[in-house]
Amino acid sequence: MSAILFAEQILNGLQLGVMLFLMAAGLTLVFGVMGLINLAHGSLYMIGAFACAGVATATGSFWLGLLSGLAAAAAAGAIVEITVIRRLYRRDHLDQVLATFALILVFSEGTRWIFGSFPLYLNPPELLLGTVVLPGGIEYPKFRLAIIVAGLAVAAGLFWLIGRTTLGIRIRAGECDREMIAALGVNIGILYTLVFALGAGLAGLAGAMVGSIQSVQVGMGEPVLILAFVVIVIGGIGSVEGAFVASILVGLADTLGRFLFPVLFGAFMDASSATSIGSALASMLIYLLMAVVLVFRPRGLFGNVGA
Amino acid sequence: MEPALDCFICRNSTAGQPQSAALAVAAPQGGLSISHNVFPNVRISAMLAVERHFSARLLSQLNGIGDMKKIALVLATITGLAFPAIAAANSLKVGMITTLSGGGASLGIDVRDGFMLAVMQANDPGIEVVVDDDQRKPDIAVQIADKMIQSDKVDVLTGIIWSNLALAVVPSAVQQGKFYLSPNAGPSALAGELCHENYFNVAWQNDNLHEAAGAYANSAGYSNSYLVAPNYPAGIDALNGYKRFFEGEIANSHYTKLGQDDYAAELAVIRASGADSVFFFLPGGMGIAFLKQYAQSGIDIPLLGPAFSFDQGILQAVGDAALGVINTSQWSKDLDNEANAAFVEAFQAEYGRLPSLYASQGYDTANLLISAMAKAEVSDADAFRAALREAEFDSVRGSFAFDTNQHPVQDIYVREVVREGEVLTNRIVGLAMEDRSNAYVGDCSM
Asked: N or C terminus: fewer CB in 10 A for chain A?
């Protein structure tokens, strides 16, 4: 195992981490501000990917596709908030889970109705195909590097938005006390729609970017949704900082586990059982991580916000 | 109007039968039910499901969500004396359990469409097909099988795509005296110790394509292979199949999580491994993700794999990343025989897309069944079984025969992904194995 390989795996972990952050940020914002568990967040990710693939195929431009993926997911988020989610804020979590689960079915089958059962084609733009050689001789795919850069930029933008703008102040105020900020004259309905659309847009962006290196197909959002839930539980539900730290942690743990465990077990058992035990354990690693974090910090790493 | 129906009526009128005025049409759930009296003593009733594109998708949605609604296709039931030859032919009811919704739906849809194409072409009023969606869930497949056996009274079951579903359904169905013809799933247990006189596999034994990839790797001069497969029974079987024939060294047998979509960690290890070839078995979306990421990673080690990741349904989603990749298959669109040329043309005309491997298997399964029907009645199980064993039908694969455990003996080809105009497809570049049977014949008591 060389240092170059290890550094490449760190980058891979980072890339998975920032991708997870884009998903988890929306999920945790919606939970923190509105107290809503949104299982349909994975569907918004899928909508982003399908809109991107559809527009990119029709126009030939990946960038237009990316933009429309973001826009379509944000628009879908706003529509869903206004028509369905709005009625759920005052209901208990079980009702929310039931209703948003129904939304998953509606979105999945609706997407299949429009686009068919076969996976769609979506490739990164020419500009970002191939690899670059990074300092130290690491050969790394350009597109993955672009995802890391874009993800970090979005994270920085989000922290700026929440920490330094009026909208951010209102979002944080909404997290603390929704009656009080409504009494102060903030239109809480519009604020909620905006927050929901923002989260949906980030999920759509993630879907569009990941769709171009994975497969654009119905049901692609659910596995990511589970990981995103793991992330927000580790990070502390409602905390965007927590979601960021936990995303990177989960990304690195998952990637390095898949890479190191088989090698580790290979040191003291035969190769075939080492690979199967190692890979089985690697797929459990993030859940073990979550369990350990919850033992020591039951509210997650940054979980001081009331949940 | 449904084109298949136009043909049906037009065939009748060209046969010189006067068209009756009585034509009743009803459309329950998108199905079209027609009953028309051609002759006083001939009654043709036909219920045709509208099975094309949009409506087929819509119906599969209904299946996915709803309470297992049924698409029934009863081509025609004829009683009377006008067509003595046909009237004397026996009738048979087929239950097709396949995946029409969820992640693996494209495979089930292809098997169904291939099967239905052969049934439509046979135009035999004695065949009745009941289709239901198993949603890729073993428990649902078992429920459907029970319902088809007990209330629909089917004679033959077919259609299952996934090995775990086949293992849940097949042993009990054949125990109850039903025939099962597999158009896809071929787990080793059903070829070996659980083999049964009523179970026929028309597609393959699961290991076949992997074995052929191993054999091809020898002839291509590879000496050090890196193997990737998901960590589940079919993945482990796949790598064992490859190793059974590959004579070189194995750099690593890498098992990934089933359903994994990101292979960055694996690709970094492959790049550093020093292998001279990479064999991968990652069906469905996993394969699309792997191929795209492999192409973007800049690794230049040649890839090879079984046909599953290169079938017509998903090649377009992979795009140019698949170009030039070698894969092994028992069928290809450009296989040079008359039956295949006719099949490819008819499939395209009927469904507006190129057939896949799975469609060819569905088509062969139906044709095998039809060939047996011509020889024996299904009620005479021994005669019908013997007729199936003879396998006297024009397979789109060319030569086709059953081994003693009732799995195919067939040639397995090496294909390469090429671009034909706008469409990505496969082209045969060689023969990987000739008359390959399977490794489990000895474990079967038949």
From this structure: N
User: CA nearest B108 in A: which residue?
Assistant: A117
Please state, in angstroms and rounded to a whole number, the distance separating the CA atoms of residues B126 and B124. Answer: 5
Q: Give me the torsion for CA of B135, B137, B139, B144, rounded to 10°.
A: 30
For chain B, list the domains and their CATH numbers: 13-87 (no CATH), 92-204+334-402 (3.40.50.2300), 208-329 (3.40.50.2300)
Asked if B255 has any chain A CB less than 8 Å from its own CB, the reply is: yes
Mean pLDDT confidence for A245-251 = 95
Q: How confident is the model at residue B80 (pLDDT cuts 50, 70, 90)?
A: very low
The pair of structure tokens assigned to A124 is 């990164």
Our CA-based measurement puts residue A307 at a distance from the nearest CA of chain B, in whole angstroms, of 32
In terms of pTM, does the model score above 0.80?
A: no
- Closest chain B CA to residue A281: B257
Phi/psi at B92 (5° precision): -155, 140
What are the CA-CA distances from residue A94 to residues A37, A38, B90, B91 (Å)?
A: 9, 11, 55, 52
A165-185 per-position pLDDT tens digit: 998 888 888 888 878 888 888
Domain spans in chain A, listed from the N-terminal domain onward: 9-218
Say which residues have a Cβ less than 8 Å from residue B432's Cβ, sequence separation at least 6. B212, B213, B215, B216, B328, B412, B413, B414
ipTM of the complex in this document = 0.81
Most B-contacting residue of A106, A126, A215, A270 (CB-CB within 10 A), to test interface: A215
Interface of B with A in 37-96 (CB under 8 A): 57-58, 60-61, 64-65
